[in-house]
Amino acid sequence: MTTETHKETLGFQAEIQQLLKLMIHSLYSNKEIFLRELISNASDAADKLRFEALTDNGLYEGDSDLKISVSFDKENRTVTVTDNGIGMNRSEVMENIGTIAKSGTRQFFESLTGDQAKDARMIGQFGVGFYSAFIVADRVTLTTRRAGLGAEHGVRWESGGEGTYTLETVDKPMRGTEVVLHLRSDEDEFLDGYRLRHIIHKYSDHISLPIVMKAQDKDEYEAVNRASALWVRPKKEISDEEYTEFYKHVSHDFEEPLAHVHSRVEGNQSYTTLFYIPKRAPFDLWDRDGRHGIKLYVRRVFIMDDAEQLMPNYLRFVRGVADSDDLPLNVSREILQRNKQIDTIRAASVKKVLGLLEDLAKNDKEKYATFWKEFGRVLKEGPAEDYANRERIAKLLRFASTHNETDAQDVALEDYIARMKEGQSKIYYITADSFAAARHSPHLEIFRKKGIEVLLLSDRVDEWLMGHFTEFEGKSLQSIAKGDLGLDSLEDQEEKKELEKAAGELKDLTAKMKDTLGEKVKVVRVSHRLTRSPSCLVVEEHDMAVSMQKLLKAAGHAVPAVAPSLEINPQHPLVMRLNNESDAQRFADWTHILFDQALLNEGGQLDDPSAFVQRLNDLLVTLGK
Ligand code: ADP
After folding, report:
1. Ligand 1 site: residues with CB under 6 angstroms?
2. Integer Cα distance of 426 and 313 in angstroms
3. Residues of the chain with pLDDT under 50
4. 8 A C-beta contact, residue 586 and residue 545
5. What is the pLDDT, as a whole number, of residue 1?
6. What domains can you pick out in the chain, each with its CATH number?
7. How far, in Å, are 128, 139, 523 from residue 161 at the CA level?
8. What global pTM score does this model have?
9. Residue 266: exposed, middle, or buried by beta-carbon count in 10 A (0-12, 13-18, 19+)?
10. Which residue of 130, 145, 254, 305 sits with most ligand 1 atoms within 8 Å of its CB, as the best mutation to test the pocket?
């Protein structure tokens, strides 16, 4: 098309403008990272070319010697990064460089606070990539041609980072991408070979293809990095800094990782894996189509990003690489889905990551607490997803508990068991919409009285977790809002007798209440759970918890109506009064109130809130008289 050869001026996506400003501001103190970002992109571009060339060797255009070159020009005050990787066509340039297509963009902008230090951290986590060039440059010229297209299909993108960019079609004989940074007036420090080498060495030594620079006083180019894949090197030769820089490259994260595990397996199948746990949850952790983060290589050749077959969903926060010696180079996503070798690597990978987490949990509690805060809710998906590793995952879970003063989730099931009362055979928990609702639930009353610990669960995923997780080390997990609590052996005989007596005396009352409430309840009975509250709702052992019913309803599922049972506290003044109530209307009103209150306590929704309010007000007026 002729129009495309014209130079056109286009506007940035509005967010980019904001992002640039923020980035220049907050990353200035660490400005040299622009080079790392550009080299990282160039390296990815080489990986992509190598992969596409597996099926179309012509893409190499006779030159399969992939490398990245870094140069500077003192006179024109430019720094240039060149690669002979995959390159981009015009629409790819517009898509990749003119817009941010990342998932999580909206959440990112929403989460900005205006506090520089905080925002700097977040922008690092979001990843600024190419745009970091504008920290040191007031004009950036990117010239690129996609491998396989004719020389006349080159594209030049140029911008001063002020809201617009120009795009024109140019001749570019060499495929790949060249990025020229026209340095800002006070950035002359980068026009220095030593300085640039130093930066490359510091951040990009692990890049597996050669990064070349012109040798001092000679016309030859020499590699300035080690140019071997980091994960193939022996562990003991890799420094922490190198592991960290490699992490930043594979994860596009600016922050250091929390921990890593690197291993080589030789045998029937040989492969290397290097996995990292990030320090902070990414913005797209809860996006269904968010990144999965494991890069797959076959004999050092990059095959694909986000190889979701390599990690189960509940470990989707793990970043890193897996490199197989045995898979065929032409492996596709479809093949991965039913490949025995991949299954083996995946099973071993899961064990490695669980092992790493176990190690943190045992030896570095502070780091584990950070991990749990960021990713605990994801790990809780584990017992349902990965039956084989259920026990191991269960040991890694942490909960809030009545043992704590705060809402901190730091109680392991093993801690709980160690504190169990004599005669106690179950692990007790309660689920609720919020921590406050869990902690103040009337169901806790009897446990408080007896000094028995209860786990307080209020994450959305908890109902799901508990639905798939019924036993730990031979002890069953018991919701205290369900069925028989199994407290018998802890009950003293005196109390038991009293309760039986009360149940007998209140037989008429409970029967009458059941008549009043009809289908709303299964039964009405005298409770041994309550000490302070007048009533609570209990679901039978195999019925769905009230909070779970609510969750499913909210998600649009048809939920079979399972009526809970209403339990009443025989010692409570309201219940005693109700027992002596002779006015039929008032009896009905009070009964409904006791039911509705109990439902509210469960986080349930009243069918008819205004009727509840009306009855309550009538009751208050009566009491006031
Ligand atoms: P990220 O690398 O995190 O995706 P960037 O802003 O750095 O974000 O780059 C955006 C996209 O532009 C990349 O994903 C890639 O598709 C493309 N791109 C950037 N640099 C190059 C390059 N040197 N060669 C080919 N494509 C590139």
Report:
1. 41-42, 45, 83, 85-88, 96-97, 127, 129-130, 177, 252
2. 30
3. 1-3
4. no
5. 46
6. 7-228 (3.30.565.10), 232-244+253-366 (3.30.230.80), 398-489 (3.40.50.11260), 495-624 (1.20.120.790)
7. 13, 7, 70
8. 0.82
9. exposed
10. 130
